[in-house]
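ESCALATION

Customer reports they have been waiting on this structure for their group meeting. Please prioritize. Original submission:
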Amino acid sequence: EITMAKPSAMSEGLANVFTYDSLVHAIAGATGGATAISIFFPLNHIRVAMQSDDSTKGKGIVEVFQMMAKNGGVGAFYRGLTAQIVCLATSNFVYFYTYNSLKVINTVVSGEKHISPIKNLAVASIAGVVNVLLTSPLWTICVQIMRVKKGRTPGVIEHGTKIVKEEGFWSLWNGVIPSLWLVSNPSVQFLIYERLRIMLDGMSKARGTPITVFEFFVMGAIAKAAATYVTYPLQIAQTKLRTQKGKGDKGPRYAGTIDCLVKIVNADGLGGLYQGINAKLLQTVLTAAFQFLTYEQVQMAVFSTLGARNAKAALNSFVEKKKA
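Update from on-call: job pushed to the front of the queue and completed.
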């Protein structure tokens, strides 16, 4: 039987876990994201080019790499890296903090030891929506900085100020609707990762050894690959919407996400919804795998160094005491 926690017990649970442990998870997530994007940022540039630049049609990853290197040199692959790190680290911090805090609240309120797949998906979705609404301005700025072709690369605050002056404050949330649609990507990703983690936890206990770094890497890669395939049509629509030009452009004009998807299918068939999928998979799977690997290592290092309890262990202990 599940009973509600007493107010004093609930306050104790939130005080012990909500602030400290969630903060550690958020820091670990931000560190993982920043590290991963720094390593694989050139692939991000190649992916954007293959999704939006007509001159890359029919070319493979290596050919696009050679074309970009010839036109812009090595520096072309790292333009906007600082802005990307700021955006991703902030976004991951918000997401991981919200995600773990909501899981704690569910456990404290319901008294359940393990969160169900349905509730986990709901928590991940809510965390994704919060993340999108809070960090969309940063991503708008970041995308525009990456599209700067020549001259000095502006900073995040500098370019953000310019956008507000020239286009208005709310223009910082341009593209927020398709971004909200794409909340399903991290939701699916974390749902799969959590299921894989539970399976690996059981295997590690049975064999008497902890989960290895390589296993963390593989779990992250599988989770991201599956999520990418499921949501890729929305991602390619988002890229096309963000990169379409003014009324004088000869290319197709899209009124919104649905209109974009329909026109892509009419023009290129269902295969058009997966244009550049190989580059996207290579970039996102490697990035996500290293992100999870770093996330787990940073989390364990902080808890180990400070002698803190693991969030899951703390919650389980709290629930057991409450039931007793």
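Sent to customer with the following note: The two ends are 12 Å apart (CA to CA).
Escalation resolved.
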